[in-house]
Design brief:
Number of helices: 8
Oligomer: single chain
Distance between the termini: 30 Å
Strand content: 25-35%
Radius of gyration: 19 Å
Strand order of the largest sheet: 1-5-6-9-12-13-14
Shape: globular
Length: 290
């Protein structure tokens, strides 16, 4: 689902029922927000420049706008026309020219996505604007799955939505879940292990979706400032109790030089691990702030 592989594990008397409900919820959210589904609410907004939305899509747009503000525009759901120019949604990859990117820059800015919460209507303030909720949707979906597990009395669970890991409580024996942080230089290995309970662990890196042209590698995480693939750090892993926030911030922190990213994480109470190009591993642990 959501263009990735997902695994869900739950422990408890109603585990099977809870997992079935979770799968239904994942599929429902995908039908609402996927840019790859023509009938989705997001696709219809992109096609028409406006549209009525469900509570789910409305919440994600509102939350995305809040994170846009708190990251000073580093997390921006209006990046979609730029993603299209690079060919990532269709896999028809190309390197867009500077003039093309300059023109598309005029379509950006989540402050131009207007959401009327009472009417549950979204309007894109600029003709040609398009949005993509992919940077927050899987994290949000994780939190909804956890809600379903709790409603069904699940005592312990771990899910991975395309590498976005979320845990409920600890393992069945009460110990912490141990989540490996992948090594971007060698995806068969890892750089360390995080011990967590009731938290999300979400990594952003350029090693999963990319293409090569004239000997240069271009990955899918586009910096809203340069409109080029971000190349400040190798990867960023974020841990937080709020999985939607963790999802968005892993993208935002990847789009910043390490020092700026660290300052942003600290201001927002986000714990993170950075893998830098010089081989260094930096981390920021803010357990009390969470």
């Amino acid at each position: 689902a959501m263009d990735t592989y997902m695994t869900l594990t739950a422990y408890g008397k109603n585990a099977k029922k809870a997992l079935d409900a979770a799968v239904d919820e994942i599929n429902n959210i995908e039908q609402l927000v996927s840019t790859g589904i023509d009938s989705s609410e997001v696709s219809q907004i992109n096609k028409n420049g406006k549209g009525s939305v469900s509570e789910t899509t409305g919440y994600l747009i509102k939350r995305s706008k809040e994170i846009y503000d708190s990251t000073n525009g580093v997390f921006d759901i209006t990046i979609y026309p730029i993603m299209q120019a690079w060919g990532f949604p269709t896999e028809n990859y190309r390197v867009p020219g500077k003039k093309e990117l300059k023109k598309l820059r005029g379509l950006m800015g989540a402050d131009h996505v207007l959401y009327d919460e009472k009417k549950q209507e979204v309007t894109l303030d600029k003709k040609g604007m398009k949005i993509d909720l992919g940077g927050i949707a899987k994290g949000y979906t994780s939190s909804k799955v956890m809600d379903i597990f709790k409603e069904n009395g699940i005592s312990s669970a771990v899910i991975s939505l395309g590498g976005n890991v979320q845990t409920l409580n600890g393992k069945p024996d009460g110990s912490d879940w141990r989540v490996a942080v992948e090594n971007p230089a060698d995806t068969g290995s890892y750089i360390g292990v995080l011990s967590i309970k009731d938290k999300a662990v979400i990594t952003s890196g350029g090693y999963e979706r990319y293409f090569e042209e004239n000997g240069v590698t271009y990955h899918h995480i586009i910096d809203p400032d340069t409109l080029m693939p971000a190349d400040y750090v190798k990867a960023v892993t974020v841990t937080h109790a709020d999985s939607g926030l963790a999802d968005a911030f892993s993208t935002a922190l990847f789009n910043l030089p390490y020092e700026q990213g660290r300052a942003l994480a600290q201001r927002n109470g986000v714990s993170a691990v950075w893998e830098l190009y010089d081989g260094k591993i930096e981390w920021l642990s803010l357990v009390p702030a969470e």
